[in-house]
Prior knowledge:
By secondary structure, the chain is of the alpha/beta class. The chain has helices at residues 6-18, 27-34, 38-55, 78-92, 107-110, 113-126, 143-153, 211-221, and strands at residues 58-63, 69-74, 98-99, 103-104, 134-138, 157-160, 171-178, 183-190, 199-207, 226-236, 250-259, 264-269. The protein is globular.
Amino acid sequence: MKKLKRSARLVExxxxxxxxxxxxxxxxxxxxxxxxxxxxxxxxLAIIKEVFEDEGNGELQTLAGAAGGVKYIPKMGREQALxxxxxxxxxxxxxxxxxxxxxxxxxxxxxxxxxxxxxxxLFATAFAxxxxxxxxxxxxxxIPLAYATGAELNLPVVLVRRDHQVTEGSAVSINYVSGSHxxxxxxxxxxxxxxxxxxxxxxxxxxxxxxxxxxxxDLLGEFDAEVAGVGVLVESxxxxxxxxxxxxxxxxxxxxxxxxxxxxxSVAPGNYFTGK
Length: 276
């Protein structure tokens, strides 16, 4: 039990909520933690709730009754989301990102925890209203984005392997087609990694026609699991809609064109605000 001044209590309560998103916390937890009356705790939570909503940091939901409490739902406001997406497009448009073959270098962005946390919060906002049991991605570049999203939703992360690892135990493997050359690849998932009938949010760093993500969708079918949503950091705008294997997904940025000779990259906001 801690005896703190109200100002200090407000700071610590806020931190406590921020590190436990989507978790129901009974009022008695705070009352016992700070040795304060529930009425005082309720007043404190009302202040925190107002600040969260005014600053666009999320919602503080209150559930009444004996089994009730409060739950922090991370959300990013439209203005803040637009600012981040524009920043993402600006960074992706840097000419020195062009690699031989017209590929785009993105590893530096994926390696910045603070930047990925913002992207994860955007996906947490987009899919906040859906029932989700876990976040899934395929190794390796999508891992930071998946963990950032999982942290904001307070959900476990499931990693699909490109090659089966002995340490994963018994696994389910499937073949899938990916890339402009329609290459055949294999992905596998440990039987222990995912419970049957789970609702899964798939996230990935880049999507062209959607072959890799469709592979994960097919893999989920082997577990009798359901796709709760799909989020991609960047999608290719050079793929015709009829060639894309997915229709329902959320993207933060669209790579329209890469001019390797002219050293120009055209990037625009994805469908985050418009849906797909």
